[in-house]
Amino acid sequence: MRTDIHLASSSPRRREILAAMGIRFTAAGVDIDETRYDGEPVTDMVVRLAVAKVGAARATVDRSVPVLGADTAVALDDHVLGKPESEGEAVEMLTSLSGRAHKVLTGVALDYAGEIVSVTSVTEVRFREIHHDEASAYWQSGEPRDKAGAYAVQGIGGIFVEYISGSYSGVVGLPVFETAELLSKAGLVILPLDSDQ
Fold first, then answer.
1. Which CATH number, 3.90.950.10, 3.10.20.30, 3.40.640.10, 1.20.140.10, labels domain 5-185?
2. Is 77 a catalytic residue?
3. Fewer CB near the terminus (10 Å): N or C of the chain?
């Protein structure tokens, strides 16, 4: 029987990706301080926060169960775009991304057998030009309200995306390739060859 893991996240998107991979898991969100340190590179921040989520979840999860955590950041140059708290903030984010390329970084960490391993996925996303009225209408759809960078690539926000170079699933919130690599290190079989498994 395949080993279960615990996902340290309340994100429905991460849960959907993990379920689509055929992994059986439990999941719960954790409460950590996600403040970026002064001068901290975004690549370091996403891994640090993924590790912190794993550590917070580990306190409540049996030691025999691997714990997976992830953190995603949308970065324009060196500026991290969080979740918008108002229409004005969302419109400002979207117009700043308009006609430009930005990066979406996801750090993934796995705690198993007393060891924590991590990996980072970096994807470049380029937006077409976005007019102010479009950004405002998009906010009214409700989709950007809990999304870093004020957009969801898997939803209506996908209409703004000119191209993606890297991991699409990483932009959604959990890079499949990198996650599968970590799970394999923990001995989880993603594609069991024995049909009885």
1. 3.90.950.10
2. no
3. N
